[in-house]
Amino acid sequence: MSFHDVRFPLSVALGTAGGPMRRVDVVTLASGREERNALWAGSRRRYDAGLGLRSDDDLHAVIEFFEARGGKLHAFRFRDWLDWKSCPPLMAPAMTDQIIATGDGARLQFPLVKRYVSGPSAHVRTIVKPVAGTVLLAVDGAAVTAPDASVDLATGIITFSDAPSAGASITAGFEFDTPVRFDIDQLSVSLADFRAGQVPSIPLIEVLS
Questions:
Q1: How far apart are CA 130 and CA 84, in angstroms?
Q2: pLDDT at res. 189
Q3: What is the pLDDT of residues 165-203, one digit of tens each?
Q4: What is the CA angle 164-86-4, rounded to 5?
Q5: Where are the domains of the chain?
Q6: CB burial readout 38-63, b (16+ within 10 A) else e
Q7: Residues of the chain with pLDDT under 50
C-alpha cells in the first residue's frame, strides 16, 4: 500500500476519539465458564476524526486532506494525542525510556519498540513512524548520536555504524505517529447539520506493516 509521509491535521486529531482494539473469540461453555482465544497477535487502532471538527475551516482541511489521499488509497501519519511518545504524554522523552534490544556484538540494525507493561504481562509494539528530530539513543546509558547511529523515519529501524557489544542494553526515547488510512469511501457532510451540532463520522484505521 502507498504511504504519504504527511500528518493528519493536528488540531482535528486533538479532538478525535479512539484507541487500540483487540480481536478475542469468547466461547461460553455449558458450565457457564468461558474459553477465550486471541485471534490477533497484537492490537490495531481505530479512530473517529469527526469528533475533532470544531469549525468550517477544520471541515475544509479534512476534505482537502481526504481528496489528496484518494480516500482509502493512501495511508498517512496520525498523532494519537494519548499515545505518541516513548514516555507518558506529559513527560519529555529520554534516551532510557524504552529498552529496544540487547547487543550481540554483530547486529547493526534494531527496530524501535514501545513496551506496555502491567504486572507480569507486557505487549511490545513496533514503532514504524518516529518523528524527525525526536529520537534519542543510548547504549548502556551512554548517548549515541550521528554519525554513530541513524534512524529511518519511514520504518523506525535504527542502524549503528558499529555493532553494540554483546549484552549491551540499547535504549531509546522518541515521539511517533501512527500510520492510518481513511476507512470510508465518501465524506458525507451537510454544512447545515454540522453547524447545528451534528458531527459527521470520519473513521480512520491503523495500517499494519
A1: 9
A2: 81
A3: 999 999 999 999 999 999 999 988 878 777 866 778 899
A4: 95
A5: 1-84+178-209, 85-176
A6: eeeeebebbbbbbbbbeeeebbebbe
A7: none
